[in-house]
Amino acid sequence: PALLAANPSLMGLTNLKILDAVVEACAKARLMVIMDNHMSDPDWCCSGTDENGLWYNSRWSEQQWLQAHTLIAERYTHQPYVVAQELRNELR
After folding, report:
1. For residue 39, how far is the Cα from the chain centroid?
2. pTM value?
3. Which DSSP helix (H) or strand (E) runs through 15?
C-alpha cells in the first residue's frame, strides 16, 4: 500500500493491471516504453546470490520465462508507444 500511496486508484489491482495503467499514462504523455526484464523475482536487484543473473533459476524455468515474455509482447502488441522489450538486463 505504501508503494501506491501517490496513486490510490491502483490499490487492489493486479501487477499486470498496474503495468497497464503505467503504460497507458506513458502513452498519453507520448513517452516511448521499453519493457525491461531486470529480474524474474519481485525483489531489489542485484546480488551475486539472487539467482537472477540468467533468464532461468530454481524458481523460474526457461519455459516460464518465455511464457512471461510472450504474454507481455502479446499484451502490448497494439500499443504503439511500447517500442521494445529487453530480454534481460544486467546478465551476471
Report:
1. 9
2. 0.84
3. helix 15-28
Phi, psi angle pair for 36, to nearest 5°: -120, 115
**How many degrees, rounded to 5, is the angle at CA 90 between CA 69 and CA 52?**
65
CB hemisphere CA count around 10 (13 angstroms): 17
C-alpha distances out from residue 83 to 34, 48, 61, 87, Å: 6, 31, 26, 13
Query: Chain centroid to CA 48: how far?
Result: 21
Render pLDDT for 35-69 as a digit per residue (tens, 0 to 9): 998 888 888 888 888 888 888 899 999 999 999 99
Beta-bridge mates of residue 86: 36
